[in-house]
Amino acid sequence: MRHIINRPVVSRNAGAVAVVAMIASLGVSTAAQTPANQRPLPPPSGAALASGGVSAPVAPASVPLPEGYVIGTDDVLTILFWRDKDMSAEVAVRPDGRITLPLLNDVQAAGLTPDQLRTSLMKAAAKYVEEPNVTVAVKAINSRKAFITGNVAKPGAYSLSAPTTVVQLIALAGGLLEFADRKNIVVMRTENGRPVAYRINYKDLVSRKNLKQNIELKPGDTVVVP
Fold this sequence. Notes:
Structural class: alpha+beta
CATH topology of the largest domain: wza like fold
CATH class of the largest domain: Alpha Beta
Mean pLDDT: 82
Radius of gyration: 37 Å
CATH architecture of the largest domain: 2-Layer Sandwich
Number of helices: 4
Helix content: 10-25%
CATH superfamily of the largest domain: wza like domain
Order of helices and strands: HEEEEHEEEHEEHE
Strand content: 15-25%
Number of domains: 2
């Protein structure tokens, strides 16, 4: 008489799952035993690096420049030499139109555009630095001024940091005084090397007549309120 022995039945699928689980556990164990200095490094995060692993220079902030802008007295400039921080500086243009920088000493700035000054600085720095790379940014424009004098509350010089008309300048100066001659205000300026004058009738402007009189001022203009 035969004896029947009951054996557990293991499906082929179950065996395959067991093998996969064993391989995975071996992989995790191997990774845990690998020294940290031998593991592959993750890719660099953040901004991409330039060739050679050196990050690109960050340009300093600059104010919006009006059309035809040239550097003038009292303007504040940020001069940045990439890789040569000791030569970089924030400087104000002196009354003689020059700026002073480390190593380069006095450099003419007034009358130049920022790009022209950059070219001048690169030529000067080439005597001391191999392949200089310089950025010129305008931090503040203080040279573009118009002047108002006569019967206004606060005569003086006012910055033209934005487009400014005659009426706006009078408002900045605190308005006209009681005895001001509102019909004969004069704007004096120099055009093509010659002095010219524009008569402004403030009463007409207030009554919205001949609004073309309310001209936009230019640097160096002087408004005279008799």
